[in-house]
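Box 4.2: Ligand-aware structure prediction
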Amino acid sequence: MSRSESYHCDVCGKLKSDTEIWWMAWIDCFKGDKPEEDQPLFKLTRWSSAQAHSDDVKHLCGARCSETLIDRWISDQRENPEAHCEP
Ligand SMILES: [Zn+2]
C-alpha cells in the first residue's frame, strides 16, 4: 500500500517539496516520580519521512514556523502552569 507523500506545514499551510528540509514536532510527556509531577514536553527534530506519518506529529516548514508553534505552546503553558500530560 503506498501512502501519499504530500505534507503541509501545520503553521503556515505551505506544501512540502521533496528537496526541502523540514522539521517535526511533538508534545510528549516529561515523567516525574509521581503522576502529579508529570509535565508536557515539546520535542523538535529534523524531517524524517519514516516518522512524518506518525499520529500527532506537527510538520514544520522552517525555523520561523517552528518558533511560532513553540511560542503558542509556551503561551498555553503560561496560561496553565500546573498542566500535566494529556492522557
Ligand atoms: Zn510553515
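In the box above, the bound molecule is zinc ion. The pocket of zinc ion is lined by residues 9, 11-12, 14, 61, 65 (CB under 6 Å).
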